[in-house]
Automatic annotation (TrEMBL):
GO terms for biological process: sulfate assimilation. It comes from Psilocybe cyanescens. Pfam families: Inositol_P. The keyword Membrane does not apply. InterPro entries: DPNP, Inositol_monoP_metal-BS, Inositol_monoP_superfamily, Inositol_monophosphatase-like. Mg(2+) binds at residues 71, 143, 145-146, 289. This is 3'(2'),5'-bisphosphate nucleotidase. It catalyses: 3'-phosphoadenylyl sulfate + H2O = adenosine 5'-phosphosulfate + phosphate; adenosine 3',5'-bisphosphate + H2O = AMP + phosphate; adenosine 2',5'-bisphosphate + H2O = AMP + phosphate.
Length: 352
């Protein structure tokens, strides 16, 4: 029956795989003038725009009626000053779109040799991500490069896609080109795709969509348990995490990593809990930054809530609403992390 989301999963894995090839190859060629600073001061590169164009084009061919909440929009590329970047983005996107069909690909998704798109089609594909979100119906979220700062440093980043139906994430895919396939054996190389479908479990695949390996968060031990946190101090409070760490007597230092690669690591037992508390007021977490991670951790047997223990609400629009932080952990660890977070919040409140 349709709730299996089999086609959605296949299309999502293929789209993320193609976008990951694009972002890894563009990193080596990235030159000055291929990065812009957005209105909120965050960076965006030709790789972000081109990857969103590729994923959105594939979704449009496969599911033309589905709205998309995508991080990027093409307005800066539609003006004269953006022409050089636009030309490069169209070239990169078309290279990815016309690449040979791979494992699980289907020419009906508008990809493969001979399927190049016009400038207008590429810009329109990017702008198809302008849906405002909401609590009913189907919608996709795209974060074409999550952790752009990590991408620019040559560190971790993720290509993220999710399908949300009536506010509930049903499919999540996180592609991590720079993440070791096996954390215990980094010499085996990098490049993983994490996939989860509601009720069907979580898996890790190769970048080409092969070798599915089921993921379950293992029971943690005091020696292995630690926090996964942002590299960027502005994105989540490192000092708050340090306090929670000491309340829980955690001895292993936190793993700092950009992007939703953190959710992937948690799902495969490489780190004990993802903790993200706001550094100030004003920033609202975006749904594309957490929807794929939430389903991945839940399908690997974990729990994802805000700092009050409430589930994340993906039906409020493009953001998660007021920022109460995020706690993700295995089901045995989540209650004690939540209790320690609440204790640390109480202490912080008592100080003011
Ligand atoms: N002040 C902030 N608080 C929390 N997250 C932020 C903040 N500013 C940007 N972000 C987002 O955090 C995400 C990266 O998270 P992490 O630090 O865990 O890698 C990015 O999507 C980034 O958005 P943007 O893409 O607009 O830069
Ligand atoms: Mg992001
Ligand atoms: Mg992004
Ligand atoms: Mg960004």
């Amino acid at each position: 029956m349709s709730l299996a989301f089999t086609t959605e999963e296949q299309v999502a894995v293929a789209a993320v795989g193609r976008a990951c090839q694009l972002t890894s190859s563009v990193f080596n060629k990235l030159v000055k003038n291929e990065t812009l600073v957005k209105g909120d001061k965050s960076p965006v590169t030709v790789g972000d725009f081109a990857a969103q164009a590729v994923i959105s084009s594939i979704l449009y061919h496969a599911f033309p009626a589905d709205p998309i909440v995508g991080e990027e929009d093409a307005s800066d590329l539609r003006v004269e000053s953006g022409k050089e970047m636009k030309d490069r983005i169209v070239e990169l996107a078309n290279e990815a779109i016309t690449a040979d069909l791979g494992l699980g690909d289907n020419a009906n998704w508008g990809i493969g040799p001979g399927q190049a798109k016009s400038d207008t089609e590429i810009l329109d594909a990017i702008d198809r991500g302008n849906y405002e979100g909401g609590s009913t119906g189907r919608m996709w979220t795209i974060d074409p490069i999550d952790g752009t700062k990590g991408f620019l440093r040559g560190e971790q980043y993720a290509v993220c896609l999710s399908l949300i139906v009536d506010s509930k994430v049903q499919v999540g895919v996180i592609g991590c080109p720079n993440l070791p396939v096996d954390p215990a054996h980094p010499e085996k190389g990098t490049g993983c795709i994490f996939v989860a479908v509601r009720g069907q479990g979580a898996q890790q695949l190769t970048l080409s969509g092969a070798n599915p390996t089921p993921l379950t968060i293992p029971t943690s031990t005091p020696e292995t348990f630690n926090f996964l946190e942002s590299v960027e101090a502005a994105h989540s409070s490192h000092s708050f995490n340090d306090r929670v760490s000491s309340l829980l007597n955690i001895t292993r230092p936190a793993t700092r990593m950009d992007s939703q690669a953190k959710y992937g690591c948690l799902a495969r037992g490489d780190g004990g809990a993802y903790l993200r508390m706001p550094t100030g007021v004003g920033y609202r977490e975006k749904i594309w930054d957490h929807a794929p991670g939430q389903i991945l951790v839940e399908e690997a047997g974990g729990i994802v809530t805000d700092s009050r223990g409430e589930p994340l609400d993906f039906g409020l629009g493009r953001t998660l609403g007021e920022n109460f932080g995020i706690i993700a952990a295995g089901k045995d660890d989540h209650p004690r992390v939540l209790a320690a977070v609440q204790k640390a919040l109480g202490e912080a409140k008592a100080k003011v």
